[in-house]
């Protein structure tokens, strides 16, 4: 009975009936069309019954397998595949609909495909997750039609599964390779700079492409008859702490991701690089009423702790409490540390309220504050105004940009480091800053 209920007429069947009804109507005026209309009606019903019988009697041995990553990376495009095996003796025209997680807000994903008898086909689609959390995939729906095309059957294949969306592990790996690559360049904007090096001598080695010329050891070169360079190693066991503001200002979305999500990805990337460079990585999350603290360590389990904490972070609806943050840093960090503060000051007034506490933090530690460039406002400021309203909009946009630059200048006057970047470039810029400060021996 369940199979019988899943069979229904197709649009083609109803269109034929509409055409036959029109033909019968015309036959009242043109009598000789009455007989052809009856014949076409009889043939349509006969083919419809035959199509129905084919679908009822045919065992629907059509397994479907969905394959894809078990863990999704936040903000990255990733591919899923549907493998469909037609184990029947009939070929079908199929519409394939996969039930995607509600977080994707995508309800129009469907494929038109041909399922040859006894053959397997594979369909692919891509998704981009913009929210962290658990994503539940539903069933795979198949709407099958034979070559007659007057009836169709709707079948479901239970392939429900859950995948977790974590901070971008793909970006983390990409930045890790760039940071440890002696050629230090990759395509597009993802470029890692190296400024100088530390002066802890490690060894003399043979020159390879990408080594700095100023590191050439001319005495060793003369003795060996080939270029030799001094190799230096960075100072180890320094504390690198990411401080994430969870206030409402971090809810602003850019290209699908919130500022907090961009900060989460950047925190994961810089923590991984710090651990790979034998530094200690830690994490602080703060809002209006609480501060969460993961003490900086270099253990094997530290990356897992950081990842699980970043996975669960949520934005708050209230303002940040910098007094609470300062108190926690003062009591929890005894060693001088590099602090990356991911926040979003939208006005000079908000920054001036926090400046006294930020200066105190910067006295005991090296503080770097991130500022986010609003690309949409920047574009508005550059557009030519064509009306009075356009002049007002352009003026406000330029005032907003001027306010950001004024904030950067204020921080510079108080000796506080800062990063001003587009949200999508945050991970790269933070990595650059870390390598710069480390090479200059400022940590």
Keyphrases for this structure?
elongated, alpha/beta, Rossmann fold, Immunoglobulin-like, five-stranded antiparallel sheet, 443 residues, six-stranded mixed sheet
Within the CATH hierarchy, at the fold level, what is the topology of the largest domain? Rossmann fold
The geometry reads as elongated
Radius of gyration: 32 Å
**Number of helical regions:** 12
Uncertain spans: 182-196
Number of strands: 21
Main sheet: strand order: 18-17-14-19-20-21
Can you give the mean pLDDT?
86
Question: What share of the residues lie within helices?
Answer: 25-40%
Number of domains: 4
What's the structural blueprint in terms of helices and strands?
Layout: H1 2-5, E1 7-9, H2 11-27, H3 34-57, E2 64-67, E3 71-73, E4 77-85, E5 92-98, E6 110-115, E7 120-128, E8 133-137, E9 140-145, E10 151-157, E11 161-166, H4 169-179, E12 200-206, H5 218-224, E13 228-233, E14 239-245, E15 253-254, E16 257-258, H6 259-276, E17 280-286, E18 291-297, H7 302-311, H8 322-332, E19 337-342, H9 348-364, E20 366-372, H10 375-382, H11 388-413, E21 417-421, H12 426-439
Parallel strand pairs: 3-11, 14-17, 14-19, 19-20, 20-21
Antiparallel strand pairs: 1-10, 2-4, 4-7, 5-6, 5-9, 8-11, 9-10, 12-13, 15-16, 17-18
Helix pairs in contact: 2-3, 4-6, 6-7, 6-12, 8-9, 10-11
């Amino acid at each position: 009975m369940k199979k019988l209920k899943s069979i229904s007429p197709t649009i083609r069947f109803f269109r034929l009936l509409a055409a036959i009804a029109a033909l019968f109507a015309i036959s009242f005026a043109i009598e000789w069309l009455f007989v052809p209309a009856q014949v076409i009606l009889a043939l349509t019903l006969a083919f419809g019954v035959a199509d129905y019988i084919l679908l009822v009697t045919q065992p629907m041995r059509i397994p479907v397998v969905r394959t894809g990553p078990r863990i999704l990376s936040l903000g990255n495009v990733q591919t899923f595949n549907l493998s469909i095996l037609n184990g029947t003796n009939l070929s079908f025209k199929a519409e394939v609909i996969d039930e995607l997680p509600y977080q994707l807000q995508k309800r129009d994903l469907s494929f038109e495909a041909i399922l040859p008898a006894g053959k397997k086909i594979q369909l692919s689609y891509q998704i981009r997750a913009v929210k962290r959390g658990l994503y539940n995939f539903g069933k795979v729906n198949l709407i099958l039609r034979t070559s007659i095309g007057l009836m169709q059957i709707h079948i479901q294949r239970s392939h429900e599964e859950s995948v977790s969306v974590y901070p971008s592990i793909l970006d983390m790996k990409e930045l890790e390779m760039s940071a440890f690559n002696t050629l230090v360049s990759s395509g597009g904007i993802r470029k890692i700079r190296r400024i100088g090096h530390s002066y802890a001598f490690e060894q003399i080695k043979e020159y390879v492409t990408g080594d700095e010329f100023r590191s050439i050891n001319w005495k060793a070169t003369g003795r060996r008859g080939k270029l030799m360079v001094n190799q230096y190693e960075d100072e180890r066991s320094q504390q690198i702490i990411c401080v994430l503001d969870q206030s409402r200002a971090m809810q602003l979305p850019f290209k699908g991701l919130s500022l907090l999500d961009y900060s989460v990805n950047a925190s994961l990337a810089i923590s991984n690089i710090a651990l790979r460079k034998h530094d200690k990585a830690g994490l602080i999350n703060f809002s209006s009423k609480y501060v969460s603290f993961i003490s900086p360590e270099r253990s094997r389990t530290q990356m897992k702790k950081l990842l699980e904490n970043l996975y669960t972070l949520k934005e708050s609806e209230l303002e940040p409490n910098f007094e609470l943050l300062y108190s926690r840093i003062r009591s929890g960090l005894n060693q001088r540390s590099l602090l990356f503060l991911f926040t979003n000051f939208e006005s000079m007034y908000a920054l001036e309220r926090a400046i006294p506490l930020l200066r105190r933090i910067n006295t005991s530690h090296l503080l770097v504050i991130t500022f986010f460039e609003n690309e949409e406002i920047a574009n508005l400021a550059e557009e030519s105004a064509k009306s009075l309203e356009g002049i007002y909009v352009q003026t406000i946009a330029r005032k907003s940009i001027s306010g950001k630059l004024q904030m950067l200048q204020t921080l510079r006057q108080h000796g506080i480091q800062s990063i001003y970047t587009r949200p999508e470039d945050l991970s790269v810029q933070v990595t650059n800053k870390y390598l710069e400060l480390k090479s200059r021996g400022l940590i």
